[in-house]
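Hi R.,

Here's the chain you asked about this morning:
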Amino acid sequence: MSTTNQKSQDARPAAPLEGKVAIVTGAAQGIGNAIAHGLAAEGAHVVIADLHGAEEAAQALPQKSAGIEVDVADEHAVARMAEETITRFGGIDLLVNNAGLFASLVMRPFTEIPLAEWRRVMDVNVASMFLACQAVVPHMRERGGGKIVNISSATPFLGVPLRLHYVTSKGAIIAFTRALAKELGPDGINVNCIAPGFTLSAGVLEHDAVLDQLSRAAVSARAIKRDQQPEDLVGAALFLCRPTSDFVTGQTLVVDGGLYLH
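And here is the predicted structure, written out as tokens:
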């Protein structure tokens, strides 16, 4: 190799997230998986944390990565997730709280939602983020900062009916993000939120009733007249994880093709 070519290669800028360690929950498929691939493509070591299929999904990533099977609503399992990440990669810089329940939930009046189902949705969609942040933030403080991205939904802004527990949980994530951003700002930890529109993730595609009920209505109401794909969330997630967003915190970015405008 010539000296000129060697200098040219040496001069290439490092990937924006080179060497960073990221945990993405619920990333064996769907939105979380798309974000995991985006982070890995920018140089991050990604830990895919999911109830099933985490190790298989991690094997498909281009960087040195890992899969950890974990119930994100279980306090001890989430603590183990953080410790295993530290053991394998030496630290934690990024956390994407993506795991949640949606497609498997039946649309019905709130008077027909069982209390046990309400509590399960709150555990998986909200308490999981609380537990993950509790487990991860001490390690971020040791690194001098970090980025947390919480995945909410556009439904709290729209007031979507017949899934009151889901919509309430996603609204709670927005409030959680704002309060935690204020608390962690002095530590150099940014906390932001992404609110997707109705997305054709793998879980949604497994439920024909959900597609029939929501897909056509969502497309017709958007400014951009097409289905939303998991890949449509990657750019927003990468922006909130990169150093270029270091002065952005406590914000919710709606990514829904122009359905909700605020």
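One quick note: The first strand starts at residue 21 and ends at 25.

Cheers,
M.
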